[in-house]
Structure formats: structure tokens, C-alpha cells
Amino acid sequence: MKFDTPATTNPIDQLKVIGKPLDRIDGRFKTTGTARYSYERHDVVPNPAYGHVLGAAIAKGRIKSFDLAAAKSAPGVLAIVTADNAGALDKGKNNTAKLLGGPEIEHYHQAIAVVVAESFEQARAAAQLIRVDYQDDGGSFDLRAGMADAKPAKVLGGPADSAVGDFATAFAAAPVQLEQMYSTPDESHAMMEPHATTAVWDGDRLTLWTSNQMIAWGVGEVAKTLKMPKENVRLVSEYIGGGFGSKLFVRTDAILAALGARAAGRPVKLTLQRALVFNNTTHRPATVQRIRIGADKDGKITAIGHESWSGDLPGGKPDGAVSQTRQLYAGANRMTATRLAVLDLPEGNAMRAPGEASGMMALEIAVDEIAEKLAMDPIEFRILNDTQVVPDNAKEASKESQTVGSASKSELPFSQRQLVQCFQTGRDRFGWAKRNPKPGEVRDGRWLVGLGVAAAFRNNQLTKSAARVRLEQDGRIVVETDMTDIGTGSYTIIAQTAAEMMGVPIDKVVVLLGDSAFPVSAGSGGQWGGNNSTAGVYAACIKLREMIAQKLGVNSAEAAFTDGEVRTGARGVALADAARDGALSAEDGIEYGDLDKKYQQSTFGAHFVEVGVDAATAEIRVRRMLAVCAAGRILNPKTARSQVIGAMTMGVGAALMEELVVDKRRGFFVNHDLAGYEVPVHGDIPHQEVVFLDETDPMSSPMKAKGIAELGICGVAAAVANAVYNATGVRVRDYPVTLDKLIDKLPAVG
Amino acid sequence: MKPFSFERPNTPAEAAAAAARVDGAKFVAGGTNLLDLMKLQIETPTHLIDVNRLGLDKIEASSDGGLRIGALVRNSDLAADQRVRRDYAVLSRALLAGANGQLRNQSTTAGNLLQRTRCPYFYDTNQPCNKRLPGSGCSALHGFSRQLGIVGTSDACIATHPSDMAVAMRLLDATVQTVNGAGAERRIAIADFHRLPGDTPQIETTLQRGELITAVTLPKPVGGKHIYRKVRDRASFAFALISVAAIVQRDGTGRVALGGVAHKPWRVEAAEAAMPRGAKAVAEQLLAEAMPTEQNAYKRPLVERTLGAVLAEAKG
Ligand SMILES: Cc1cc2nc3c(=O)[nH]c(=O)nc-3n(C[C@H](O)[C@H](O)[C@H](O)COP(=O)(O)OP(=O)(O)OC[C@H]3O[C@@H](n4cnc5c(N)ncnc54)[C@H](O)[C@@H]3O)c2cc1C
Ligand code: SF4
């Protein structure tokens, strides 16, 4: 189905099942331990051997020699695979470093061997017997030191440099100016389930039960890496214990499980040990950002500039921290610049809201700062600088535009933009009026109390997505698509979509996901999964409705699918009747025209945070949070809320504690376990409220929905940092905001 | 994890004898620290002696009006004991500030005293660490040291003892009771139990080979207001950046000990003498010889300010 004109009224608008806060249909499996995760597929692979990965002990250099003798003769060992005996391997196009390193080592804990043994313990013990002689070449590990040599780098969806009008002149002329540097640290996805795979070979055909967000990409990457035809690779990912982007791409676990299984002649299951997750896999790269904002005396932005530096391995990508600055606030003169330094740290890549998450951490502090300089309420300032068209729509920065001042030629309106309404709703709901704009004034016992606010912004992306829908003889509807559920609720919203479309209760719908044997979906990433995958199911259901109507001899345009019946006028026939001669199956997908070129589709929100800062110790504790979101139709307010509160929690982590600490001498992330890499615990998250504004976006899909799961994290950390400032009068611009950065600046204890 | 043999004796004497007999033997109690370290091959015992069936799991009143805590009493049970909550509240509070519920249910009194440092380099066998591999160097001294020690440190090691419970034990003048392989019993004042790193950071206590902890005893209660204040980045389930344990009497005299600053719970007599003069004076005495790194210099003002809050709370 081609979606190229705005959606009109369709069966989804009935909202009998869609839009209801239904429990997730897979919840019972998860709470009873019967959800089948990739490492636990004993149902299909009863007797696997175990793989254990050995990570490199240096950051950059070469393996001079391996001594495998002791490991080979250790009890239970079936095979050891290194680059020496793995056979020729290619590299996935989404991998920067090789998934099996050696002799060249590109980063710390890069996999250099996999040991396969009868038991997990035996594999681990044998891996610890491998002796490796390295040549350590040192490397570049310090982003700030690398900034001077950093090169322009294109960001996903944008050029390395963008410019509208004449930023330099306008900024210099602005009566009120803000110029500041900010930094965000490297962060780990730290999802609960580490990367895990069970691999089985059948001749030259490979099946991987693997924890992966993007099944079709994964098939291609496995085939490319192992130099085998795509047709011979099957990927299955029924349940995923969190991904946050770290499972968008094929990683070490999948490739080494496959190689280990081939070498051992046995099915192999393999999970990355927790200590390897931090340095072996990808992470959100650290950034240093410079923001300059010029405003006139009334608070209108006249110039806005955002530059960002990040680092990655040779051939890697930058963090897109500047992207939202091209779209969020008005202002005639603007520039952004993205620079990439070469660092020999582990590979940087996508993590929940890549780009906006780190960019908003800086931008939304900067906005708080300039509002204060203007003596304006930060919400008023944002409302004043709202825009209903994209202020920087240029594809590339033209040389002239930097000097002459030609605004973007064609206007690109937002399909929907309720940023102002988000702030207005939140302001009332949160009691913003009670905030004392003068920092450091409010005290509640031992706590210095402050309120902070920030905008949330993240684009909505359209990607084609297909599904197969079947009417069974017993009247059940079975949906098959390679869409994944990474804990987000895909199973449930897909079931709701099919139930709505086919007029059956949700318990008559069976959803099967995450198998490359199923039609290719959008997958889970970039907050595009919800809208696109359900739109694909919608398309398949439309087709199935036509088949059913035809079978029953009714006109599909006049037929209503409701209460398990197909009704035309007063006549109703049981849906199952259409399948009396056999199940009816329809396959279709959604494909998009250019509505996302004619309209900028984005999601918006406002985050409100109250913090307490201990007046003596400077410990920071969040007291309450509110997010108001405008993100198209909310397909299921319960699962959507879960996504937003989870994202808010992650934002608190980014604000207050998450940091992969770089050892700049040896080139690795030192705190590579969950005791050292702290993420929020229940005690850190006392009270969260989420409000969804009523919105449908006919430009996005027949579902009229947009993404929500990444919007929820964007801006949170800045709202926390702004609240800390309001509480204490201390402005921290280097995340995470920890007590050591405040302690010297607080008033004496008395 | 290296292969090891395992036994489960029934009396303390048997356990101690087994430990003396087998080279490389270790006791295992709750296993919450030891097993993690074995998986990483930081600890590589050849033989494990399970001490969970030695009958050392009781809390009893002692004849001198104090309390005798069996070595195997779980952290949760100790924290919940009525006598502890009433007479040694600082101990209960310190215990409850540590780890999480599941871990406290499993962790034991002796195991807690003997838990090893949380220095991240100690946990990474690819990195030099004098405590793990004597003579290999200290990665933390010029590396990531934000959490590590500021006082009583050496060039060889700046690690901290991570226990909360031990800080309260030190404040309460506890005594560690042991028995060795020959059946000889010994009483070690908690002040003498943990060592400073010096040139031998791998030797953390004054226990001798095969010596089994049977109990920790507390002298009779000293009254006063009991406070345990643990400072950390997140609200729960995190090791202390610093902690302050204090008992303050009505007249402003009392005791104070610090956690998270040294290789052992840190208590200084001269500091206690300064208590009536306020937090600054106390902190000066406690940290007179402090040599923080650039990354953990914040601990000095943090100690002073936290002490200030604790002393204010004691008055209030
Ligand atoms: C994730 C995590 C977070 C934690 N957070 C905190 C915290 O915030 N604060 C805190 O204080 N602690 C914390 N801990 C540490 C925890 O308190 C210790 O792991 C626990 O107290 C150890 O007790 P155990 O009985 O399990 O010891 P085990 O692991 O069984 O043993 C530890 C050591 O003691 C020796 N040993 C045990 N019993 C005896 C005996 N009777 N005689 C002689 N030697 C003996 C063993 O040989 C071993 O060397 C945390 C631990 C974890 C894993
Ligand atoms: S501080 Fe101690 S434990 Fe840490 S690296 Fe140095 S020697 Fe090892």
C-alpha cells in the first residue's frame, strides 16, 4: 500500500481497541519466565555447547602470538576460533571495527577468540588460560586533545556544516549574547540482557536465535560478514531484554556463535559477559559542544550557532548533537558544525535518540542561560521563539549563505507542532508559577529545592514495513512480521491494530514477531517501530478484508468488520465463515510517498523536574518529574507511558550518574560493570507523570501515530541540570552533574 | 573460575584445621564477594570450605553486657535485631545503607569485614594492580581515582575498604574473635584488624593463614545519638563516596569514624577530642595526613560538610 496522500477517516479511527491502555499481551510470559530469549532456546536447541569470548587486553596494536595449548587441552573444550583459523571474514557495513579482531587490535576488549566447551564454566575457564603476546601501539584516547585535528563529518540526515543568513555578524551585533562550552560523556546502553545468540548450522544453512532489533539488516550483515548467501541465513529474535540501539547491528555474539558452532560441529550458545558489554560493543560517544545564542532585548533569537565535537575509530561516525538546533527554535541567522576526531576507543554508535539526546543536554541548558540573561521566564522565552516552519532547511551550507544571508528557499512546515501547548499544559500542571526564578532561595529542611524545564524534540521517521495477516478457520487472526519487541510493546500495539482492523477482540489475535522468515518490517530503532510496523499491519489487514469480502460476496467498501462479524447493512456473517474452506492469508506493507518531504514530521514535548540538593553533601535527588508529549496518536497510553517514563529515567541517569570513564593512558572504559557504571535505581525515581496531548497526524501514516520512545529522553537531563541550577545557583555544564562539581560552591554548612 | 575442591565441615575447629591443612584454601560464607572474584580469577582458591553449617549464626548477650555476633549472622538479621536497633543503632543503620535487600540476606558478618576493595582496576585482570598482582604497579594512582582513598594511602595502593558495616564496628570498638587450625582462639581489636596498604596492599588484615572468624563482639552500649550518613551519587545500591558514623552524647562529646576514605574504617582519637569544637576541627584532625588525588580532592570538603550536617543532626 502506498501512503502518499494525508490519511482520512479509516477503520483505526473507530478506537475500539487502538488508543486503549491495554496490558501488554506478552506480559504474562515475561512475568512467568516463559518468554523465550535467545540464550534460552532449549525448546529448539536442546543440547548446545557454550561459547565464551576473549577480549583484547590492549586498545591498539597487534597480537604477536597466541598460546592456545593450555586452553585447547582444558576439560570440555571443543574448539577455539581466532582470526587465524576463522577463515576469510568480511565486515558488516554497519560495523566500524571488526567483530573478530587479530592480528590487528582496534580497541580494548575487541573479541580475539571464542572458546567452545561442553559447559559455560569450562568455556570460561579455558578462555582464561589463553596467553596472548601483544605489541601495544598506544593510541589517541582523549577527545579534548583530538579536537584541534577533528575533521568535518556528515551527520545522519544532515551536512557537516549548515548555515542560514549571516550568523557571525548577527551574533556579534546581538545585544544579549550567550556563549558556552558543554560536554557529555561516553554512555553505555547498559540494557538488562547482554548480547546473546544461539547458533545452529544445518549444512551450509545457519540459524541464529539472537537478540537483535533489526532482523532484515541483521540477515544481510551476517551474510556479508561470513561471506555466505543471504538466503542461507535465518535470524530469530522473539524476545529482547532491552537494546536501546546497542542491538541495531550484528555484534560479536552472533558472529562468534556462528563461527564457534561451525568449528565445534555443534549448536553453540553465547552471551557476552557483562564486563565485555561496555568496551566490546557500541556506546553513545562523548561530545564537546559550543553553543552561541544572540537575542534582541525582547528575547527574540537573532543568531543561533551549535558546534559539536565527538570521536570515533578510523572510518567511524560522529554524534549528531547539532541536528535539533536546525529545527527547534526560530532565528534568521544560524550555523551548525559537526567535527569528528579519530579516537582509538571502542566504537561509538546509536543509543536511544542518537544526536538529539546529547544535543538537547547542551542546547536546553544554553536556552535556560540566555533566558536568565534576558531576565525572562525560560518557558516564555521558548514560546516567543517557537516556529511552525523549519528554520534551517538547507541541504548543504552554501558558501554565499554564510556571507550574504539568504534564508532557505522553500518553506518546510511541520506536520504538527504543539511545543507551545506542551509547555502551557505542563506549566499549570507542575505548578511552575511557584518557581522562584532567583536560584538558591528555596529550602525544605536539609534540601535546597529547584525546578527546571526543557523542551523535548525528536524527529519522526517513515520507513516501509510489511506484514502477513491470516484469518484462521477458528476465527483467530495471526499476524507475522519480522518486527521486534525490545520491551517496547510492539506485540501489543500490533495485536491492537489487527483487532481494530478485523473487528475481533484482542485475545483473538496471535502476533508472531522477529523471524526473518516473516515479511520485512521497519524494525525497532529511531522511535520508528511503532508507527511504521502498525501501518504495515494496517496495509495487510486492508488486503485481508478485501479477500474476506470477496469470499463472502460482499462489497468491501460497504462492509463493516465488527464484533467478529462482517456486516453489510442489517446482514451480518461470522468472520470465520470466510475461512471455512481454509485459512485466508494476505501480505502487504506500507510504503511512503513524499509527505515527509513536504512536511517535517517531528515529535515534541516539555520536561519538568524538581530536584533537591542536599545543602551539606550536594547529593542531588530528583523529587518529581512531568513530561508533556505531543507525538501523534497514542496507540496504547499504557505502553506509551512506559516508554516515556523509562526514557525519563534514562535521562536522569544521563544527568546525574552515567559516565563511561576513559582511562586516557590505556584507552578503555574503566568502569565496565554495573557496580561501576551506575544507572538509576528505584530510589532515584520517586514520582513521574506523563501527559499526552490529543493529537493525530494524518501525514505520518494511516495510524496517524508517530514515535514516542526517544522523545521521552530528549531534554530530560537538561531539565535536571536546570533544576540543580535553580536550587543552588551553580551551573554545571559538564555531565554528569555530580556532587563533586558542586561541593566547593555551596554555601557553608551552618 | 579455576576448578576447586569443596568441603562442608560441621565445627569451627574442623573448618580452621582444614584451612591450615590445604594450601590455597578459602572459607566461603555468603559467597557474594568471593564468588564474583573467583569468576574473574582474581581469587583462585584451590579448596573451598563452606562455613555455613558451623552454628555460628546466633546473636547472644555477652556476660559483660555487650553482644556476641556469630560470624555467620546475615547482614539483614543483624540489622533487624532488636538489641542492635536499640543499643547499637549506628550498626543497624550502616548495614541498611549497604548493598541491597537480596545481598544483605546473603551476606555475613565475617564476610562483610573481609570484602575486598571496589577499585575498578582491581577487577580488570588486564591492568596493573599491586593488590591483585604485587609489584605490577597501581593503575589508580594516576588513573580513575574518584572513589578511592585520600588518607592512609601509599604509592603502592590508594584503595578503600568498601564496607559500611565495618565503619560502625570500628566506631563501636568491636572485637573480632578467631580460632586457628591448632584450635587456638584469639581476640583482635577491630582497630588492629584491617591494615593500611603500605608496600603490601595484598595483605589486608592481621588474620593469619587458616584463621577462622567465629564472632564479632560489641562492648556494652555507650548510649548517645547514633548516626550513619552515607554519601553517594545514586540514592541506593551504591558504595559510599564517603560515609560518617557518629555517636554523639548530650554534652557534644562522642566518637566519629569515616568510611570510603581509607584502606580501613578511619578513626582518629584526636579528632574525637575536637568534637565539641565543631566539624571543621574534627575534619582537620581526621584528614591531617590526607593526600588526595586531583580526582578525589572533593572528599576533603565533603567530609567536613557531612560532619557538619551530622553534628547538627545530633544536636537537633
Ligand atoms: C553489587 C554489590 C553491592 C554491594 N554494596 C555494598 C555496600 O554498599 N556496602 C557494603 O558494605 N557492602 C556492599 N557489598 C558487599 C557485601 O556487603 C559483601 O559482598 C558481603 O558482606 C560479603 O559477605 P559474604 O558472607 O557473602 O562473604 P563471602 O563472599 O562468602 O566471603 C568474603 C571473604 O570473607 C572470607 N570469610 C567469610 N567468612 C569467613 C570467616 N568466618 N572467617 C574467615 N574468613 C571468612 C572469605 O574467605 C572471603 O575471602 C556489595 C556487594 C555487591 C555484590
Ligand atoms: S588502588 Fe590498589 S587496588 Fe586499585 S589499582 Fe592501585 S593497587 Fe590496585
Can you tell me about this structure?
- The complex is a heterodimer of chains A (750) and B (316).
- Chain A has 750 residues and is of the alpha+beta class.
- Among the domains of chain A are: 2-35 and 462-598, Aldehyde Oxidoreductase, domain 4, CATH 3.30.365.10; 414-460 and 601-750, Aldehyde Oxidoreductase, domain 4.
- Chain A has 17 helices and 31 strands.
- In chain A, the strands form seven sheets. Chain A has a seven-stranded mixed beta sheet, with helices on both faces.
- In chain A, a hairpin with a 5-residue loop joins strand 15 and strand 16.
- In chain A, helix 9 packs parallel to helix 17, helix 13 packs parallel to helix 14 and helix 16 packs across helix 17 (716-728).
- Chain B is built from twelve helices and eleven strands.
- The longest helix of chain B has 17 residues, at 299-315.
- The model of chain B has no long low-confidence stretch (mean pLDDT 97).
- Chain B has helices spanning 12-21, 34-39, 75-80, 82-87, 89-96, 101-106, 109-113, 165-171, 190-193, 269-273, 279-286, 299-315; strands spanning 5-7, 25-28, 47-50, 59-61, 67-70, 175-179, 185-189, 212-218, 225-231, 242-248, 254-259.
- Chain B is an alpha+beta fold.
- In chain B, strand 6 and strand 7 (185-189) form a beta hairpin.
- Among the domains of chain B are: 5-52, Uridine Diphospho-n-acetylenolpyruvylglucosamine Reductase, domain 2 (2-Layer Sandwich), CATH 3.30.43.10; 225-315, Enolase-like, domain 1 (2-Layer Sandwich).
- At the A-B interface, helix 3 of A face helix 12 of B.
- The complex binds flavin-adenine dinucleotide (FAD) and iron/sulfur cluster.
- Flavin-adenine dinucleotide binds next to strand 2, helix 6, helix 7 and strand 8 of chain B.
Number of helices of chain B: 12
Uncertain runs of chain A = 399-408
Mean pLDDT of chain B: 97
The CATH superfamily of the domain at 225-315 in chain B is CO dehydrogenase flavoprotein, C-terminal domain
Query: What summary fits the major beta sheet of chain B?
Result: 5 strands, antiparallel
Shape of chain A: globular
User: What is the helix fraction of residues of chain A, given as a range?
Assistant: 10-25%
Strand and helix order of chain B: EHEHEEEHHHHHHEEHEEEEHHH
Strand content of chain B: 15-25%
CATH fold-level name of the domain at 225-315 in chain B: Enolase-like, domain 1
If interface size is counted as residues with C-beta under 8 Å from the partner's C-beta, which chains form the largest one?
A-B, 43 and 38 residues
CATH topology of the domain at 414-460 and 601-750 in chain A: Aldehyde Oxidoreductase, domain 4
InterPro entries (chain B): CO_DH_flav_C, CO_DH_flav_C_dom_sf, Diverse_Substr_Oxidored, FAD-bd_PCMH, FAD-bd_PCMH-like_sf, FAD-bd_PCMH_sub1, FAD-bd_PCMH_sub2, Mopterin_DH_FAD-bd
Domain FAD-binding PCMH-type (chain B): 1-223
Keywords (chain B): FAD, Flavoprotein, Oxidoreductase
Protein name (chain B): Xanthine dehydrogenase YagS FAD-binding subunit
